[in-house]
Specification:
Blueprint lengths: L2 E5 L4 E4 L2 E4 L5 E5 L5 E3 L12 H14 L4 H18 L4 H12 L3 H39 L5
Antiparallel strand pairs: 1-4, 2-3, 2-5
Helix pairs in contact: 1-2, 1-4, 3-4
Length: 150
């Protein structure tokens, strides 16, 4: 069954490693054979890999897009994921889900699950920032009131 892609003006996608941009009016593409396809909203650039979860996603994305180097990228992915899960145990169920898809050879589904890892990381960072703001606020309040820390 072919895949129908609504390809709007200015949109980009990657098909088997080739970046394609619609430079004209919107169109629809029918892909009739098995291909590695990522839409622009699913693509993470190397410049965007500033966080551990982003590095996990990017390595997996490269394994999906560049099958000739798949084993190298999957090794990077496994290293990055192992490091992330070692530092953030609450993400282990997501990591197991990603690994299950990778083991089954379904890298696209693994990427979809890796998007959950990115969302989890955002939540953890937001919670840490909130805790830090509270801590800094408490310390500042104590300093201004002349209280000392024990």
């Amino acid at each position: 069954m072919p895949l129908l892609i609504d390809f709007k003006s200015g949109d980009k996608l990657i098909i088997n490693g080739a970046v394609i941009e619609n430079g004209g009016a919107g169109t629809k593409l029918l892909v009739h054979n098995q291909s590695a396809i990522l839409r622009e909203k699913e693509i993470l650039s190397e410049a965007d890999t500033q966080t551990p979860a982003a590095r996990v996603y990017f390595a997996l994305q490269c394994a999906y897009i560049f099958p000739a180097k798949r084993d190298d990228y999957l090794q990077l992915f496994e290293n990055f994921l192992g490091d992330y899960l070692g530092a953030c145990a609450s993400a282990v169920p997501i990591g197991n889900e990603i690994r299950k898809h990778v083991k089954a050879g379904n890298l696209y589904k693994a990427l979809r699950s890796a998007q959950k890892l990115l969302a989890h990381e955002r939540e953890v960072i937001q919670a840490l920032n909130k805790d830090l703001e509270t801590l800094v606020g408490d310390e500042e309040r104590k300093r201004l009131s002349g209280e000392t820390s024990a």
